[in-house]
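Worked example 3 (structure in, sequence out).
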């Protein structure tokens, strides 16, 4: 890699990155590369902003819909939150070990959570909600 960059420094016309539309133009090629980099940075920032907004909206919804906290079937700690997101969407999430499950009622959500023991699911890495 180092050898190549040294070579391209000595013979810039041999570097394909210095061509724009088939014409040797290192200044223009550099400008385009910088512009592309700026666009990528901007789009990454926009994506993470949207993701942060979604994460916040979900967090707010959960805070509003916390139904009860009980013992987690997996880790045994009293860290299992059950949320009633809507009339037919109950969600259990352990704040400690991360196990989760959903159902149309609390009972079913809890059962699906228990069924997931040993699967090492963690809602923080992608939940049902
Ligand atoms: Zn747990």
């Amino acid at each position: 890699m180092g050898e190549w960059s040294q070579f391209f420094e000595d013979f810039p016309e041999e570097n394909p990155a210095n061509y724009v539309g088939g014409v040797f133009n290192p200044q223009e090629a550099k400008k385009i590369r910088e512009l592309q980099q700026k666009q990528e940075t901007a789009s990454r920032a926009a994506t993470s902003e949207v993701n942060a907004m979604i994460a916040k909206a979900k967090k707010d919804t959960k805070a509003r819909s916390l139904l009860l906290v009980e013992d987690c079937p997996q880790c045994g700690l009293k860290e299992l939150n059950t949320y009633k997101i809507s009339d037919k969407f109950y969600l259990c999430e352990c704040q400690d070990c991360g196990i989760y499950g959903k159902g149309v009622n609390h009972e079913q959500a809890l059962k699906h959570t228990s069924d997931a023991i040993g699967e090492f699911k963690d809602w923080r890495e992608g939940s049902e909600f």
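Notes: The chain has a mean pLDDT of 93. The pocket of zinc ion is lined by residues 72, 74-75, 77, 79, 94, 96-97, 99 (CB under 6 Å).
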